[in-house]
Amino acid sequence: MRTVDLHIPCQDVDDSRRLAALTRHLNARLLDFGPGGPEVVSFDEDHGLVKARFPGHDTAKLLHGLSHSCGVQVAQEANLALFYLNENTQFEDLDYVWGCLFDLLV
Fold first, then answer.
1. Lowest-pLDDT choice from 5-9, 13-17, 81-85, 99-103
2. What is the 3-state secondary structure (H, E, C) of the chain?
3. How far apart are CA 45 and CA 8, in angstroms?
4. Domains by residue range for the chain, with CATH
5. What whole-number distance in Å separates Cα of residue 48 and Cα of residue 26?
6. 25-56 pLDDT, tens per residue?
């Protein structure tokens, strides 16, 4: 199983342009769902953080499914999923996360 670690905040950034591009990419992928999909609450390109909620879904159960079914680790704060990216995150991994979320939400 593939492993994608998005639950630990980025500490030091050497390539801020890459981190910003990754953050925008995940934000765009989450917005791609349209109605019934995730709702992006905020995204911070400087820190590589995307916060999202999943209306109509239990966030804890959804993140548990991501972890156990897909190997994707995401942090949680209240009813929000916190996707922490770092400059070593791969664009392909973010597309994989999107696919896993699609499978779990639809």
1. 13-17
2. CCCEEECCCCCCCCCHHHHHHHHHHHHHHHHCCCCCCCEEEEEECCCCEEEEECCCCCHHHHHHHHHHHHCEEEEEECCEEEEECCCCCCHHHHHHHHHHHHHHHC
3. 15
4. 4-105 (3.90.1150.10)
5. 10
6. 999 999 998 888 899 999 999 999 999 999 99
